[in-house]
Amino acid sequence: MNHPISGFSKLSKEEKINWIAKEYFSAPIDAVALLKNYWNSDEKLQQLHDEFIENTITNFYIPLGVAPNFLINDHFRTIPMAIEESSVVAAAAKAAKFWSSRGGFKTIVSNTEKIGQVHFIYYGDPSKLEHFFAQTKARFFTDTQSITKNMQKRGGGILSITLKNKTHLLANYFQLHATFETKDSMGANFINSCLEQFAKTLQSEAQQYAGFTQEEKNISVIMSILSNYVPNCIVRAEVSCPVEDLEEKGIPNPLEFAQRFVQAVQIAEIEPYRAVTHNKGIMNGIDAVVLATGNDFRAIEAAIHAYAARSGTYSSLSHAKIENGIFSFWLEVPLALGTVGGLTSLHPLVKLSLEMLENPSAKELMQVVAVAGLAQNFAALRSLTTTGIQEGHMKMHLNNILNQCNTTNAERVAIQNYFNTNAVTHSAVIDYIATLRN
Ligand code: MEV
């Protein structure tokens, strides 16, 4: 029977580990040793990581890989990717190489607007609220000047504030809906600080507004928070080439390949079950770069999937066509990213990843991330419509099986040689290891 604990966060790291080990592990000494094995010997570095969150007990590794040869707008880049799935970096690198000799990736950022809302309840005449808002609007800007001053110097700030009547959806529910430009920062703190000030201004100005009855003056702010849905913060990435240029080893008939590829995308456009998996493949690339560059992948995931469902039906984020003998494949995604602030100046590997990307602006990072998503989608669809996904996937997964079976270096060489020409399946590998060991 396990026990609850009070004051856990006040314990030292050592005490926390000891409590967990005693409470949950049959071999507490081994559990403590394993946790400590992942501590960094550089105490300052460890302290930095300890302080990112509460109750840190150790570090949790994910590999940081790189995919070179990405030609993006005529500029070669090596893309850092933090991800645990075996085949993702290999697939990205393969797609990068493929497109580097076919014109590369072309990208464009169409907008970078962010959104925040003050959600409030107002019991009264909506036309009076509109009148009040029109009179008070300037105050929202002046009352936030101390917050917006620095952002304005960088070319950003509050773009607009509008009053929205949502009472047809929920009784007495209104919003202040504001848009922001946050330049190279993701902007969450900036936006939330502005919104909380809007809420204060809204309530205090309402109290003083002579046109309101006492009930109307008592505006009840429910919450003030940015929206992670950013349909006006959009980047597009595209590849295209004459159909015949798609030919290479594995694509003997480029027209047939292009047609099957376009059909695979069309299926994801109209079939939500397929669209989710199709988009998951895109997110393999997107999340890996988002994580490596210290951005909030949960926010990115939430925004992108909402965008994929904006028509009312969940659909593919990417599209493809063959027109006048040209094969084109493109993707459009919302990406609210930052290259300053947050983890970007704290986590040493995030700083390194950003430096590898030549310290991009947020707009440049949006382009790199979208390209990683498109490349991943291309690689997945190429495999799915030709050899099937398992061939490449299992090749990469082979290492995981070898690790599970604690193979020696000599066994690994023999196994790699054998599976260069034989299909990798879990049972085939297990059987072959047994044969070697006998
Ligand atoms: C696996 O992580 C991703 C894929 O399933 C994507 C897809 O099916 O397009 C291969």
UniProtKB/TrEMBL annotation:
Signal peptide: none annotated. InterPro entries: HMG_CoA_Rdtase (IPR002202), HMG_CoA_Rdtase_bac-typ (IPR004553), HMG_CoA_Rdtase_cat_sf (IPR023074), HMG_CoA_Rdtase_CS (IPR023076), HMG_CoA_Rdtase_NAD(P)-bd_sf (IPR009023), HMG_CoA_Rdtase_sub-bd_dom_sf (IPR009029). It holds the Pfam family HMG-CoA_red. Its EC number is 1.1.1.88. It is an enzyme of class 1 (oxidoreductase). GO terms for molecular function: hydroxymethylglutaryl-CoA reductase (NADH) activity; hydroxymethylglutaryl-CoA reductase (NADPH) activity. The keyword Transmembrane does not apply. Keywords: NAD, Oxidoreductase. The keyword NADP does not apply. CDD domains: HMG-CoA_reductase_classII. Gene3D superfamilies: 1.10.8.660, 3-hydroxy-3-methylglutaryl-coenzyme A Reductase, Chain A, domain 2. PROSITE patterns: HMG_COA_REDUCTASE_1, HMG_COA_REDUCTASE_4. It catalyses: (R)-mevalonate + 2 NAD(+) + CoA = (3S)-3-hydroxy-3-methylglutaryl-CoA + 2 NADH + 2 H(+). One of its GO terms (biological process) is coenzyme A metabolic process. Pathway: Metabolic intermediate metabolism; (R)-mevalonate degradation; (S)-3-hydroxy-3-methylglutaryl-CoA from (R)-mevalonate: step 1/1. SUPFAM superfamilies: NAD-binding domain of HMG-CoA reductase, Substrate-binding domain of HMG-CoA reductase. Belongs to the HMG-CoA reductase family. This is 3-hydroxy-3-methylglutaryl coenzyme A reductase. It comes from Flavobacterium crassostreae.
